[in-house]
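Listing S7. Sequence submitted for prediction.
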Amino acid sequence: MRTTGYGMHPEQIAGLLAAAGDAAIVLTYAEDRAFADVSLNRFASVNSTRLDWQGVEVLERSEEFDGDGLREMVRRYGDEGELVVVFWGDQVVPTVALETEAVAAHAEMVVGSCYECWLYFTDGHVLIEFQDGEGFVAARVPN
């Protein structure tokens, strides 16, 4: 099993982890890969980190790229109590899982912690991509 480098720098999201407390679950490498297989890995990519939205059901595009923009989208696509898996653009930062309410409450910390991240809504099978300075895209995860 290849784990080299995964999750070695949780300090990059320390503020989020501290604010969320017990509501935040830091995923192991195996858990990260399992959730990626049912979400991120079902999309093609453009360049190395951007997802290719051609041929998938795009639900919404937003030019906002701040906590308020993320909070609105999380509330639109996440159900109460739904688990949201947050993948960071850098694998040295561990993937975390939070309930929808915690993601909405700490949306500024989520977007402030990275230049890019992806949020996978485990019940609704929706993925939101965040690219700093560009905004958000929400899409239905392909089967």
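Caption to Listing S7: primary sequence and predicted structure tokens for the chain studied. The helical segments are 14-20, 29-37, 67-77, 100-105, 107-112. The chain has five helices and nine strands.
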